[in-house]
Amino acid sequence: MPRPHLLAALLCLAVTGTASASPTFRVTPDTLRADADGTWNLWIEVANDNGTRGVYADSLSVRYRNDDPDRSREPAQGGYELDALGRMIPPSGVGERNGITYSAPAAFDRGTLVFRFVAHDDERSYVMESTVHVVGNAFSETHPPVMLQVGTQRTDMVVIGARDASGPARTLLFVPPAGVPARSLMRWGTGVAARGWNVGIVSLPGAGRSTGERDGAGPASVAVVGAAVRELARTAGVDPARIVLWGEREGGTTALLAADSKSPVQGVVAVDAWLDPWAAYRAFDDADQRAFRTAAGSDSAAWRARSALVAATRPTVPVLLVQSSEARAADTGPATAYETARRAKGLAVETRLSPSEPRPLRKPDVQRIVLGFAERRTGGGN
């Protein structure tokens, strides 16, 4: 689970006259629901009921257990440090209660958070814990999963409506990298929706609430993306003539392979996609090489079916290839070959390759480039 950002930290001091042998630590509410913005809001309090000594914070951390239905590669359990937050809790004198408000993006809808606070006085150390049960998320509940049936398999998509749209609006369908569940990107999607876009996000097989297995941009993934495009095209509030497909890494390869002449999209964006599986395989680490062999096998025909370069002329709509500073390989050869193959057939293609840019293309640059392309393809405006 990604380490949450600290959105708010407000200190509050109160004095009590209670006396006992040791300090106490409590996080409330102990039953937590994320708010309508998808934010956890908690109150962390240290009460120094020690009769004679002040108490000083040493560290603060949290362990989590994610109970959401999710087949991604992210571990369901883990932990992270909150020492920067812990240091904001001032020393507690005798009889004092020091509290701090902790606000962070909700990382899951159901599960458990166990906060661990370590402190000391001039004679001993204290290790205290407080458990919070996560039982819901108001933001998530307003965007229920759209389940897609693709043959014998199912997967999930989330749709976030364009903010302040007066009618059917332009739409982006985002295909994330392998193993990334659609619902983990909902907060990012709201930021794009605030710019006037409907946003669809779909889980590839092996991630989210899918029933399939990861197949390395293979037939199952291509079928899932095709089904998601068709579902979006008939969704209320979506202008079916203004849909752009955007994928990253394995999702980018899948997007290129799914956008054939029958697909109702006006453009395709592939960010850090593998275009040539043989070249990509050489750049993979050992774990990803094993995963790809498991998905695609050793049959060259299966690898060829996963080659966007072989199918470079399949999308008849304009294509944008982006290679960011985070691409696994700096080789621009496959992208250049893809561009050459399309231009030879008179098909529209644009490339923005970080090694060829005046400065590296980082995430904000990539989003700006992608949205600019999508606006040109959909005519701009809601």
Comma- or semicolon-separated keywords:
single chain; 382 residues; alpha/beta; disordered N terminus
What is the 3D shape?
Answer: elongated
In percent, how much strand structure appears in the residues?
A: 25-35%
Structural class: alpha/beta
Summarize the biggest pleated sheet: 8 strands, mixed
Rg (C-alpha, Å): 25 Å
Low-confidence stretches: 1-20
Query: Residue-averaged pLDDT, rounded?
Result: 90
Distance between the termini: 34 Å
Question: If helices are DSSP runs of H or I spanning 4 or more residues, what is the number of helices?
Answer: 10
DSSP, total strands = 17
| H/E series | EEEEEEHEEEHEEEHEHEHEHHHEHEH
Order of neighbouring strands in the sheet with most strands? 10-11-13-12-14-15-16-17
Helix percent band: 10-25%
